[in-house]
Amino acid sequence: MPSREEILELIERAFQELKAEGVNPDILLAGPEFVKVLGETSDVFGLSIYIIKELEYDAVIADSRYLGQVRKASKRISIEPLLVEEEVWEEIKNL
User: Fold this and answer.
1) Residue 2's closest CA among 60, 61, 85, 77?
2) Contact present, 82 and 93 (Cβ < 8 Å)
3) Cβ distance 31 to 54 under 8 Å?
4) Predicted TM-score (pTM) of this structure
5) Domain boundaries, the chain
6) What does DSSP assign to residue 9?
7) Could you point out which of 24, 36, 46, 91 has its C-alpha 20 to 30 Å from the C-alpha of 16?
8) In the chain, what is the straight-line distance between the N-terminal and C-terminal CA atoms, in Å?
9) At 26, phi and psi to the nearest 5?
10) Integer Cα distance of 77 and 6 in angstroms
11) According to DSSP H, which parts of the chain are helical?
């Protein structure tokens, strides 16, 4: 399972990329599995967090003013590759 710090790093990277594009991310739409791995959800970069069951292991960081209007107003991130990588390392360790 990826650590909370790894997930926060992913969120921060996406947050900074959006800021560099000139938007102000203010919401995090997250799947329940993403939230479960993240753990405590309060005060994640001041983002309002909404749980969307269809996102599963993914999350979308966005500027709510432009969501759906401007392509660069959001970033989708996924922790699923981290889970797969962890499984691969476990299999290698067990060889």
Assistant:
1) 85
2) no
3) yes
4) 0.80
5) 4-93
6) H
7) 36
8) 20
9) -135, -5
10) 12
11) 4-20, 32-38, 80-93
Q: How many residues does the chain have?
A: 95
Q: Report the topology of domain 4-93.
A: hypothetical protein PF0899 fold (3.30.2320)
Cα separation, 38 vs 12, whole angstroms: 13
Contacts of 31 (CB under 8 A, 6+ apart): 51, 52, 53, 54, 55, 56, 57, 58, 59
Q: Encode the chain (95 residues) as per-residue pLDDT tens digits.
A: 677 788 888 889 999 999 999 999 999 999 998 888 887 655 678 889 999 999 999 999 999 999 888 878 999 998 887 777 777 777 787 87
Which amino acid appears at position 61 of this protein?
Answer: I
Q: Are 5 and 61 in contact (CB under 8 A)?
A: no
Dist CA 4 CA 20 (whole Å): 24
